[in-house]
Each structure stands twice: as structure tokens, then as C-alpha cells.
Amino acid sequence: MATGTTDLMSPAVRLPHAPGRLPHAAGRWPDALRRSAPLLPAVAVVALLVLPSAPAGGGSAGSGTAADAASALLVLHCLVRVLRERSRPLTRTAALVLGLPVLGVAVAALTSHDTVSVLPGTARYLQIFVLVPAALLLLIRDRWDFRVVAGSVVVLALAQGAVGVAQYLTGTGASYMGEQVRAVGTFGATDVMGMATAVSYGLVIAVGFALGDGRDIRRAQRTVALLCAVLLFVPLVLSFSRGAWIATAVALVLQLLASGARRAVRIALATGALGVVLVCGLGVGSQMVSQRLDSITQVADAPDQSVTDRYTMWAAAAGMWRQEPVTGVGLKGFPAHRDSHASLALSAASDTMGAGLAFQRRPLLSPHNMYLLVLSEQGLLGIIGLAGSWAALLVLALRRLSGARRARAGSDCALAAAGLLVWQLVSFSYGDIGGPSTVLTAVMLGLAAWWALRPVRDLPDRDGTAAA
Question: Is 155 helix (H, G, I), strand (E, B) or coil?
Fold first, then answer.
């Protein structure tokens, strides 16, 4: 247990107690890099997502990428470490929370009529919601490790955002309203939500780091994080993703309120002013952004075809659940049962082109709502397992958020983890898993799982402060 702050300020003893801090002396950088080396498998998963994505087939599960392969190596790496070192096994609470989705997935796989695609679908669900989050829970050791992995997500978001802004400025993005201006990053037109998701994650993390005010947080971190948040605001706007906008707004409001009402008001005013300057003053997609914002309020009165398709698929998913309420129609069963439950209003396909892709008609193979997808394919067993796991993570993360604020230690990690969870839970109302960016969702859940489920120890973190 740390006995006080006086000893920690002594240069003679500071390094043994606080090797996780960013060192001032150039000679300490090798030590910091050595201590971060175990995180390389996790950082590699994130870094590989910057590679251009080849056009993939449809489906809710997506198809494998280099990042997916790296995630498998991450899981294997953590398994070998646990077996070899017998270090940090999962607590009962962690095993229960992360293991909840397994029951619904297993039953849905057994009841599925499509034996060819059920195995990849099962592996995908376990990868995203169980194995990778558990691996990160075991791999991350303290708040320094959390910041390293989360920081790699911010770097990815900046890289993808830079590509997206360039696509908008040069007219080489995905097609939107007859112009190839939609920012999609290296994910391409087949995964239009990929860049929006990555940028949103990075923005939420950056805001969480900027709002942290504990004694273990340096002013330089807050300044850099605030700058990153401002930079990421532009590509998020140019993604023209209504779902990402809504989820990000909800997550940022939670983070602001959790950091203090007075600060929340100041930052909200500054953010509003920034938005007015970028959209209205500098004309960053002003007309298209305005029309996209207006379409959010027209989802009931005069919805466009994409919204009509989504409503129709939601109704189809609900019909599948009513047909098989306990176990659903089986994993990967939504495409096979879609037409028998959908009305004639469904167009059954969407148009994609741009960002290096020729015009294509892509079939609509999921309801674009994770909750309804799970409910239709896995029934009550599946939705209780998955949603129950996410709800438990959120409750535990918010509880530890209040503890971190009282202890004035780790509040940046707490705000980032809680914001990520809220963003994902809101986003799942408008989308589901699928595409190359899906593995990033697993990383996000792993970061949130570490904050919510990590064992509380009496020993101080490597930054010299006791665990929150």
C-alpha cells in the first residue's frame, strides 16, 4: 500500500514506485517500452485495422481480416501466459459476466438449420463478445496499460479520420447523395460504418482522457487528448452516419455530466461553438450535414428508403422471434427467414459505390439492430445472455467511475470505459456486428471489461496511486 505522497516525490525512489508514468529522462524510455512490450499483441490488432479492406461478402458476421488473425494470436498469447505463469485468472464475477453470451450462442448454433455457416458465425460471436474481451482483461495490468491500448485506438481513429477527410475533399469517398464524398477511411464502401465507428471510439476515449482530473493524470495528457477530440470531430461529421452521431452525443453527455455539471456546461458551449464554426462558418459539408440531421427527425413522418428498409427488417426480426421465442430461428438464420416475414416495402438490397468500388447491389442480410438480430436468431436465451452481460459491465463500470472520482485516481480510464460502453449500447440500436471493423468492438469491450471486472488489489498501480 502506498504510504503517502512525500516518498513518491523523491527522485531516488520515484522510478520503482512509478515506472508506468511517461518518463522525463531519455534513458528511461527503454524501460517504459520494455514494460509495454506485453501489450504488443493487443496494439497489433488495432494497428492492422489501418490496412485497406478488400471488398467482402455480406452477412452479419463479416469475413476474416489480418486484424481478426491478430486477435486469434492475442487470445492464444494470453492462454499461454495464463498456463505458464498461472497469473491473474478470471474472478467468478468476470467469468460469469463474460460467459453469459456462451449459452445463447451455443443453443442457437445447435438449433440452426444452416450447418455450413453456423460454425464461422459461432466463432465470430465468441471472438467478439467472449474471447477477445477476456484476453484483454487478462493482458491489461493497470491503468498505464489501459491508456496504452486505448491510446492506440485514438491513433487509429486519427489515421482513419485523416483518410476520410481527404476522401471528402478530393471526392474519392463512398457515394452519398450522388457524390462520392462520404468519409469511410480505408474500410471502403462495403463497410461505411467502419470509419465512423473507429473515429467515434477515438473521440469518446479522447474526451474521457481530457476530462480526467485525478492526481495520476498530467496536464499534457489532457491537452493532447483535447486536441485529438477536436480533430476527430471533423471526420465524424463527414461520415454522415446518423447512428454514430446519436451514439456519440449520448456518450459525451454522460461523460460530461459524470465529470461535473459546471465543466459539462462550459465544454458543451465550446463544442457547440466549434460545430457552428466548422459546419456553418467553414462550410464543412454544411448542406449535406443539415439534410442528414433533418432526416433524423423525419424517420416517422417521411422516412427515406433506407429507414423504411430498416423498419421493415425490424418487423421481420420481431416476427421470427414470435415464431421461435426461446431459441430463435438459429444462428445465421435471419437471411433465410427474412422474406417470409418481411413486407413488400423492403427493397432487399442497398446500393454501394465509390472509394475504389464499382456500383454494387448488396443484399440486406441483417436487421441493422443488434438486439433484434440476437432476439430473432437466438431468442430469449441469447438476448438475456448478451444484453445481461453488457448491462452488468455498464453497472460495474459506472459504480467504479464514482469510486475513481472520489479517490481522484483513474478517472480518465473510468470516463473512457463508461463512454465506450454507452456508445456501443446506443449504437447497437441502429447497427450490428459485421465487416472488418467488428474486431475493434471486441477491443472496446475488452477495455470496458478490464475497468469493470478487474480485481481490486491493495497494491498501488505502477503510477504510484492505489487502485480505485
Answer: helix
